[in-house]
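Async update (no meeting this week)

Hi team, since we skipped the sync, here's where things stand on the single-chain job. The sequence we agreed to prioritize is pasted below, unchanged from the tracker. I ran it this morning and attached the output directly underneath so nobody has to dig for it. Comments welcome in thread, and please keep replies under the output.
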Amino acid sequence: YLGDQNAERQYRMDARKRLYSAVGPLRFQLLMACAEYANRIGRMSDGKYRYDMSMARYFGRSTAYRLIRTLAVSELIERQIAYADFSIDPAMRALLRFKQQAFLCLSSHQVSLNHPDADWTRQHQHVFYDNLTMIASAMIVDEAGGNARILRFDEFMNMAEADGLARFAPVPDLLTEFTPEKKPILWLRLIALAQLCIGFVERHGEDLGLDITPIDTKAALELSQDRHITAHRDTYLETMRTFGNSFAGP
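Output:
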């Protein structure tokens, strides 16, 4: 019995070392990406300015980068499952949950609910779930020696200048000329992902002291000027709270 217990302890210790070695730096990157994405949506949600979201302009490109980078880091984390045992540490399992929830924010009916303008036949205000993996993977650079990393912003900008951002489709098209009024369902999705990011940082990045711009969710929803969202405001507010509380508790 004691031998079995010692073997179990040794296994868990070794697995934890492998886990932290493989995923620890990526966890920090995800927290940073979440904070920067949430701050961008917070800036857009205050309603003070109208931003040019064209992919020919800096603000549109940087918004696309922040969004896709968040997905890409979570995708890269999931790839480490082959090298580490995520069951060892509940905090690390939350990283996998983040990816699942982030993908749902951008793809599922759990955000749009029963909005009458939802069109599931084309990617007009959402992204097909499986396409999100391809979009995230397009942001990952495989280097010599089996190492992988996320594209830097300067590389992303150079790519946009050279051959456009077609490899990240449909995200560039979704964001080009975006306003909450023109694409209210997409706005719901962007807010839901921001709330998820805020909840994740508050629960798992407290020791980093990351600054996040608070989002007045009620005011943000009102920017859409959408009759259905306005009529069901409380339901949508509860949905946003649900994503924000995804990591609440022990």
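Quick observations from my side:
The two ends are 31 Å apart (CA to CA).
DSSP finds eleven helices and two strands in the chain.
Reply here if anything looks off.
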